[in-house]
Amino acid sequence: MKAIETIKKYVSVLSRYVGYVSYIGYALIILLTVVDVVLRKTINKPIVGGYEIIQYLLLVSVFASFAYCQTLRGHIQVTMILRLLPKRAVFVIYTITSIFTTAAMAFVAYAAAQQAIYVMERGFVSDTLKFATYPFIWIECICMVIFALTCLVDALQSACAIGNRELQEQLLEEWD
Question: What does the DSSP assignment read for 94-113?
Answer without folding.
Answer: HHHHHHHHHHHHHHHHHHHH
